[in-house]
Amino acid sequence: MRCVVFDGGRLLFLVMWLNLLPQADSCPAKCICFSEPRRTVACQQQGLFSIPTEIPVRSQRIFLQSNKLTVVGSTSFSSCHNLTVLWLYSNNISHIEAGAFDGLGKLEELDIGDNSNLRTISPTAFRGLTKLHTLHLHRCGLSQLPVGVFRGMFSLQYLYLQDNNILTLHNGTFLDLANLTYLYLHNNKIKIVTDNMFRGLINLDRLLLHQNRIIYVEPKAFTSLGGLKSLFLFFNNLTVLTGETMNPLISLQYLRLNGNQWICDCRARTLWEWFKRFKGSSSELECSVPEFLAGKDLKRLKSEDLEGCVETPQLQTSLFSSKSQSGKFLSTEIPLGNNIPWCCLGDNDKSSILSGKSRQITNNPLKEKENMSKTKFKQQERTKNETQIKQNDGPLGTLSNNLDKTLENLKPDFIDNPESSTASIKKKKKCSKKPKSDTQCIKGHGSTLQMLHFLIIPMTWISLSIS
């Protein structure tokens, strides 16, 4: 624009230019506002019970943490279209109204963590936040996440969900989060890691699942996690983890599996073999059972240490379901590995072990054989004490409903192992080419058959007879 020569014209131009400037934004009471490096409204630790209504519309960062806010209204930030950072953590927020974050298409970081009364979230709470890269939802008392809550959040890279009460996650919860890098799920109450729980997380770098209650990881749970570098599963209730489950983790560098109750027999062989190929860093895997391996690192065992169980699908051991008079926790595992040669079991008995169906072992042809020696064991049967053990709601019925503490608090000494320390040095019983007669099987293994007489394969209630 050409400069005005005359003084009067120059003054008129200056007045017109000042009128064209936007009016200075006011700053809410109890807040501090500044424009560098970004336009910021700082209202933290001011004892606020509600979100200020005079927030400047051009604000890029709003800090409202450590107040006494209870509700995030649908119009609280509706005019702040330039907002990139919003901190609402450490308040008393219990409700986020529908549309509370509508119009915040430029928002990059949202922190609503440490609001212990925020126990539910609307499925559409984060709709439209397509540029959000960091979301804090830790320590909110959440027990579940609604279906589709993260839908459309394609830019999200960091998701903090730790220190909640999450029991399970819907399949496909993270399906749209292809760019997610860090997922923090530790210190929740997750019991099962399902096949499709982490589907879609193709760029995940770090997965923290420690300090949950995980008893089982399904075989395809890590299929999508080819880029994962860090996996933490320590201090859970795991007893078995297969090598097939771990195979997709081709980029894994840091693995933590300590603080679990590992069963170190044939069920651990595939994991042991996987560790032979694993080149990254790993914690120790302390064996709990059998007793003669208790305290040893699974990775350092020899191949012959992992023998001694029947090569059939094994039922999980309930390590903490009941207590005997001797003070040891009873195991519900049926110790078939070295006690009864496979040839001594009838076809019906073999099928019952394979299927794992809940039925009386005595309802089979072996019952008649056992009756042949009933007189011999009559006195022993009168001294038996019966105990009932209730199983939890896990798919394998493995843990007591009353068990809330992690397994690491219990010592291996309190676990009744399925194999004695002398079992490994005894010569393994093998089937002869000529099938044994019924009388020979009963004579050689009468005490074990008597034990089977009082066991029900554990799926619901288990009755144990303790001599």
UniProtKB/TrEMBL annotation:
Q: Which InterPro entries match?
A: Leu-rich_rpt (IPR001611), Leu-rich_rpt_typical-subtyp (IPR003591), LRR_dom_sf (IPR032675), LRR_TM_domain-containing (IPR050541)
Locate the region Disordered.
370-440
**Molecular-function GO terms, alphabetical:** ganglioside GM1 binding; ganglioside GT1b binding
Signal sequence extent: 1-26
Q: Major place of localization?
A: membrane
Q: Which UniProt keywords apply?
A: Cell membrane, Cell projection, Glycoprotein, Leucine-rich repeat, Lipoprotein, Membrane, Receptor, Repeat, Signal
Compositional bias (Basic and acidic residues) at which positions?
Answer: 370-387, 405-414
Q: Name one GO cellular component term.
A: membrane raft
Membrane topology per record: Lipid-anchor
The family database entries (PROSITE patterns) matched by this protein are listed as:
LRR
Q: Could you tell me the Gene Ontology terms of the biological process aspect for this record?
A: positive regulation of Rho protein signal transduction
> Which locations, inside or outside the cell, does it occupy?
Cell membrane; Cell projection; Membrane raft; Membrane
Biased composition regions of type Basic residues, renumbered to the chain: 425-434
The similarity comment for this entry is:
Belongs to the Nogo receptor family.
- The protein depicted here goes by the name Reticulon 4 receptor
**Organism, as annotated:** Nothobranchius furzeri (Turquoise killifish)
Q: Which gene encodes it?
A: RTN4R
